Amino acid sequence: MTTDTPKSSPKAQIDALLLKLPGVSARKINGLDAYFVSDRMFACISGGSVGIRLAAAVATELHFSRDHISPFQPGGIAGTREWIQIDRADAADYAKDLELFQASLEFVKNSRSR
């Protein structure tokens, strides 16, 4: 006999992962739970997926090299080339993507304002 344990929500896991990074804050924007550095969004949660912003070339390479990454489509709307979507069946597995979250944070922090 097995006992099902409730999986934690993506928000709880992402909060635990990202809010401990220096300079990261969280707030709601357009109904999304979003994460900011230097007052600029670098990650957000849409449904059960997490979107992050990276250089377009890096995002494209990740999209084609990792099966749990696809173009970011919040609410089914196509995003930009700089945004990818990470999908993990178990929210705890987002911890495996810490290096991507850190790369996104650094990319956004060091990007010039548009």
Task: Note down, in words, how this protein is organized.
29% of the residues are buried. A six-stranded antiparallel beta sheet has the order 1-2-3-4-6-5. β1 and β2 form a beta hairpin. 28% of the residues lie in helices and 28% in strands. The chain is globular, with a radius of gyration of 14 Å. It is built from three helices and six strands. It has 114 residues and is of the alpha+beta class. The protein has a single domain, classed as Aspartate Aminotransferase, domain 1 (Alpha-Beta Complex), CATH 3.90.1150.30.
Which keywords apply here?
114 residues; alpha+beta; Aspartate Aminotransferase, domain 1; six-stranded antiparallel β-sheet; disordered N terminus
Strand content: 25-35%
What order do the helices and strands follow? HEEEEHEEH
Count the strands?
A: 6
What is the overall silhouette?
Answer: globular
Q: Return the domain count.
A: 1
Could you give the distance between the termini? 56 Å
CATH topology: Aspartate Aminotransferase, domain 1
In spatial order, strands of the major sheet run 1-2-3-4-6-5
- Indicate the mean pLDDT: 87
Biggest sheet details: 6 strands, antiparallel
Rg from C-alpha positions? 14 Å
Q: Structural class, judged by helices and strands?
A: alpha+beta
Number of helices: 3
Identify low-pLDDT runs: 1-6
